[in-house]
Amino acid sequence: MPVRQRETPFGLPRPETPHGEIVILEERCKGCGFCIEYCPHGVLITAKKYNAKGYHPPEIVKAELCVDCGFCRMICPEFAIYTYEPPNAGEKP
Amino acid sequence: MSILKELQKASLSPTAGLTGPDKHPMDDFLRMDRMPHIWCSTCGIGVSVNCFAKALEKLGTPLDDVVVVSGIGCTGRVAGYVKVDSFHTTHGRAIPFATGMKLANPKLKVIVFSGDGDIIAIGGNHFINAARRNIDITVICLNNFNYAMTGGQVAATTPEGAILSTSPYGNFETPFNLPFLAESVGAVYVARWTSLHVYNQTNSMVEAMKKPGFSFIEIVAPCPTIFERQQKMGDGLDRLRWYCENSEIQTEPKTKDADIGLRDKMIVGKFVDIERPTYLDAMNAHYQERLGSKYKVYEG
Amino acid sequence: MKADPKGVLTGSHYIDGDFACCEGALAAGCRFIAGYPITPSTEVVERFARRAPLVEGALFIQMEDELAASITLQGAVWAGKKAMTVTSGPGFSLMMEHIGLAAMTETPCVFVDVQRGGPSTGLPTLPSQADMMQARWGSHGDYEIIALSPNSPQETFDLVIDAFNLSEQYRVPVMFMMDECVGHMMERVVIPTADKIEITPRRFTKLPPGEYLPFKPGEDFVPDMFKAGDGYRLHVTGLTHDYRGYPVMTPEVQEQLVHRLVNKIRLNAPKIWRYEETGVEDADVVIVTYGITSRVAVEAIEAARKKGLKVGMLRLVVVWPFPEQRIFELASRGKAIVVAEMNYGQVFYEVDRSARGKAPVILAGHGGGTVHNIEDIVNKIEEAHKCRS
Description:
The complex is a heterotrimer. Chain A is an alpha+beta fold.
């Protein structure tokens, strides 16, 4: 896990880092690169493949680092990427 | 299958299937049968529509009561893509149309979503008068510094020195300082953000729509195909990086310092947040005082 | 349905044409006027500004220019109200783009033009009838409108109600062409009780959201209407659009839409035509006229009849769509036609075209500023009589 876990005072439960699942609607992407550039954890890179319109959509390389911040979803002009919190996100391996 | 047919098949149905990887949470807000939209790759208008969708969700107003009015231009096409009662009117006249709609049915939440040339050049007279009257509408002005739809002509907001098709040797006119103008004519809420500041934009939109009175948000957006290309500033992503370096969020900015130079730093933030009675409140109060019991409060 | 009594000022009044226009609008259910002051139409909005706070649900706003006024009223229409604006020549020219928008988006509304001397600033306080062609052809593109012309304050009251009814029935902007004389003359206007006034309600659709298509026409080429806030969530645009209201810019959709906009009035024209005929059956010369000139023509006909000439009058009440069929009939029966109007030839060209060469058509016109001299019209009648033989 990238977030260092420290002992919290008073025995309170440890803060849990949220985790997000990413959904990319590749056929809508127009290759602007905003999500790739501004993901705070560098989860995405530009894919080498093309979509049907000839653009390079994003590709997930570090899926475990996604914290469901939602910035990629907000900054995408094409409504082509979003994250959601999967139901069993609270459990830890 | 030939390549052309494959491309056609792939691009025809952006929402093939109703669940899973072909549907976006904001699809209910959009006219999906008209997607993909016409805006260029790395254009800032799509980002603002995304923020607007989120802002409406946060605001909680039922979408049946929301009306979006646009003028003509690239930003003017927003009305055609949002799934609310939307009106694509003539160039520069979105604000009076919105005025008529709001006054005839004050229960509606009316938002004007249009471009800089539409709102402040041809529509300048309507802008200043609606702000003066404090009509309860929200005006979201997307400023890409040119008339993009017609191929990139100089606008009233173009920074000095910019090269555009009708200022081929550089613009020598002084542009408007939109927050300064809005404050001086009496807008009750004035903010400026860029396409990079997505959370700030969204929160500003929520605040502006909640606030009674004439609210004005200027969003500085990239126009990669025309403005950035002519000024050799790269594409939209390069422009967002530029905004990151050169826009300064101030907590209590002054509108008179909010000029935008072509390659200067710009101030963003919330400039004005004051209280003033709206047109209908002032009208009702005034007639009740003058006409007494003969006047029934106007509710639409 | 019957008029709403709250807007009807029942009684016998001594008021001018402009005031009668305002009262007619209120009686017809108009509850929103966006105006701008311009002589000689200012009195209409002055009266409405005084009456609106006392009529429940009525609102008057004076906009910053005619461009704003002509589109603010359309915003009010799409929010569900009946709306009107008033202007004169120079303001009418400014409103042309939005008359085109109203025709394209099929917005039911009324534009009142109290005509004055033109062109440009012209004679602000004196009458003319020189905007008649502009009412029909003023905006760009192919479209059709309905235009009415009253000749007295009483008729102004009655016809404004008809103007609103026609606009709702055909979902079209209606031009109400008064002139400064009719606007400023004071006569007795009798306003009946509300239950004697018939008004056409807006033809709101009965279909639920999802099934209703805002620009799909019914049998009479007119689609049903909706209003913002009812949950339909539809798009209205001035671009060429299909039945859903979505912009589709192809020649096929242009044909489908614009041809229907034009047919809406042209093919329903026989139901819309309205004119008043006096003494036409046995006449050798027919005077075609409208507005204040028709009242002068009545005197001219009396004078001509004293001279032994058989003259009749056809007074246009609905000027557009033009009753070309009736003019052709009269021309075919060998009657000569004199067109008396306060301009240098506008409706004259329509009459000439409709006669199709079957009869001589002569213009009795002048530049405006005053009504016709009776002798001038009588001279033209004699000239027409000579042409006939």
